[in-house]
Amino acid sequence: DLESEKKVSLPEIMIGDFQLETSEKFNEFMIELGVNWVTRNIANNLYPVQKIRQEGDEISLNTETTFRCTETKFKLNETWREDTADGRQTDTVATLSGNVLKKVQIPDASTGYHTTEELREFSEDGETMTMTLLIPSKPEVTCVRVYKRMHTEPTA
Fold it and tell me: SS3 for 82?
């Protein structure tokens, strides 16, 4: 059945480069994940660029900073092993629902690490990406990071 094999494309508004503009509760979120003080101190002062691309049915999500770059490639609705920026290894699955790209990151239960969710919600015009980082078991440390689209070419 070819219909079920149809590839899912990200909406055009999700493709591009987005730079962090504002951040709330990122430090609290990192503390909950056990990120050490030195790393948190660096991370809190970075304004990462997230680059989202799609080739065929493979999506790449790169986070670039002056400190380090992380790259993730995945297909929607398929579980993959992800090495998260905070050093966990998780079984991750990404889903697309309207203007929201959601990743659920589940570590091995034996590690004692938290399951986390990343939601990237895009404004209708594609100019803003609001990333929500949450730990389902710890809603009080939900982190909200707002990214703005970067325009390489000057707008006329």
Answer: strand
Question: Looking at 45-49, 84-88, 130-134, which range is the least confident one?
Answer: 84-88
CA dihedral of 83, 87, 91, 93, whole degrees rounded to 10: -70
Provide the whole-model pTM.
0.90
Three-state DSSP string of 136-149: CCCHHHCEEEEEEE
Is the distance from CB of 51 to CB of 149 less than 8 angstroms? no
**DSSP states along 22-40:** EEESHHHHHHHTT--HHHH
Q: Which of 2-6, 53-57, 104-108 has the lowest mean pLDDT?
A: 2-6
